[in-house]
Specification:
CATH architecture of one domain: Roll
Structural class: alpha+beta
Strand content: 5-15%
CATH topology of one domain: Chitinase A, domain 3
Strand order of the largest sheet: 5-4-7-6
Largest sheet: 4 strands, antiparallel
């Protein structure tokens, strides 16, 4: 209290002097620059800089212990507030940049302190969920402290990074990809005839190879799925699969596509796995790409650090197990039954592409099997609703169910008839 009185007296006495307002921005910039230079010198091994850096850290740690709020015998420090902010994702931390936002956060921490004290007073600390949560938090903090003692990324040497790069070459290689289109025929003769006619047209128009191939696909291909796409199969690797692992073309077709030497060239008729024949046209290609060492160096360094931390964690936990006396009652574990979660919420089954195709043609689609495993017969009333093309939904279109009139008493019927008769007379002017 005395300090506050002195401070106010000095403030009043100096009001008339009106000294120049210090430039806080420049002061902060100079302080940040000074700290950066000190840290740089400390990293180079300068003993004086190391001592100065340690002094700065100690001062910062002391400031974090300053109390910003008290709740009875409990207190909330600067460290409590900053720790809460620092645990948030980086993009979320900016919301606490202003004084008003930090005041709201402090109020939240006060509310949490009051609720925690009340929960403790009610004996909730002894519940299993609280004990498990506390143990999980302590375990995570212990492992985080253990990870911090690994020394950081600086302990991963250049030789280790290079050895990992050389020993895992396939990880840093993007395989070649190709994009192709096909014209599918049912017989070899039909495929040969289509290729001959196509090549005759392309010979007269060499720059129209893709256009001509697409036109022939629309007219002659028997594959309804790719016919609408002018035969396009999309991108795929040498095994015929795309980046999502979906099969775009069988092995024979993929092999034929990768054998083509230049864009827009067309293969000879290829027999596919389903005993059909196809002409393959190469429409685009991406060669194999090897990521250079400098491009993936940081990624490898992080991988090795995580691997090192994981091994250190495993060793540490095994050491704790060796010191502890652990007994497991397997019979009790086998007999216990978790509480039933209750009936599952029914989920809406959306039609697959084949069902949508059938529905668009006015055909019924068999519903999924019922709970007893018996298939439900095809419903001819199942049709595409106009909104299905936008929302991927279907609805059953049929007659409305018959309405059942509720039973009425004799007195109610008499009253209704009397009212109806009065309305009829009023209308007739009687």
């Amino acid at each position: 209290m005395r300090r506050l009185t002195i401070f106010l007296a000095l403030s009043v006495a100096l009001t008339g002097c009106k000294p120049d307002k210090p430039n806080v921005t420049e002061a902060r910039a100079e302080e940040a620059s000074r700290r950066a230079e000190t840290a740089k010198a400390a990293a180079a091994g300068d003993p004086a800089a190391l001592g100065a850096l340690q002094t700065q850290t100690d001062s910062s740690d002391a400031q974090r212990q300053t109390v910003v709020a008290t709740i009875g015998e409990s207190s909330i420090t600067v460290d409590d507030v900053l720790s809460y902010i620092e645990r948030q994702p980086r993009e979320m931390q900016a919301r606490y940049a202003t004084h008003e936002q930090r005041k709201k956060l402090l109020q939240h921490l006060i509310d949490m302190e009051l609720l925690a004290r009340e929960a403790s007073a009610r004996g909730l600390e002894s519940t299993s969920i609280v004990r498990q949560t506390l143990k999980q938090t302590l375990a995570r903090q212990l492992l985080a402290d253990l990870d911090a003692k690994t020394g950081g990324l600086g302990e991963i040497t250049e030789a280790e990074i290079q050895a990992y790069y050389d020993g895992n070459g396939k990880v840093f290689v993007r395989p070649a990809r190709r994009r192709a289109a096909w014209l599918m025929s049912r017989t070899q003769e039909a495929s040969v005839a289509a290729r001959k006619q196509m090549m005759d047209v392309i010979t007269q128009n060499p720059n129209m190879g893709r256009q001509v191939f697409g036109d022939f696909v629309v007219k002659h291909s028997v594959d309804g799925e790719t016919k609408a796409l002018r035969g396009d199969l999309g991108w795929f690797f040498a095994d015929g699969k795309n980046e999502l692992g979906q099969v775009r073309v069988d092995v024979a077709g993929a092999k034929a596509a990768f054998a083509l030497k230049s864009i827009n060239t067309i293969s000879e008729p290829i027999e596919l796995d389903n005993e059909t024949w196809a002409l393959i046209q190469l429409t685009n290609e991406h060669p194999e790409v090897v990521q250079p060492f400098d491009e993936v160096k940081m990624d490898i360094q992080n991988r090795l650090m995580r691997k090192k931390q994981s091994a250190q964690r495993a060793t540490f936990i095994e050491g704790l197990k060796a010191k502890a006396k652990i007994e497991i009652n397997d019979a009790v574990l086998a007999e216990m039954e978790p509480k039933s979660p209750g009936p599952a919420t029914p989920r809406l089954r959306l039609p697959n592409p084949e069902e949508l195709k059938a529905l668009s043609l006015g055909r019924g689609v068999a519903s999924p099997a019922n709970a007893k495993g018996k298939p439900i017969p095809t419903d001819p009333k199942l049709r595409l609703h106009p909104s299905a093309t936008r929302h991927g939904l279907i609805q059953r279109i049929g007659k409305e169910p018959p309405r059942v009139k509720p039973e009425t008493s004799r007195a109610e019927r008499a009253t209704v008839e009397e009212v109806q008769e009065k309305m009829r007379r009023d209308k007739a002017g009687e």
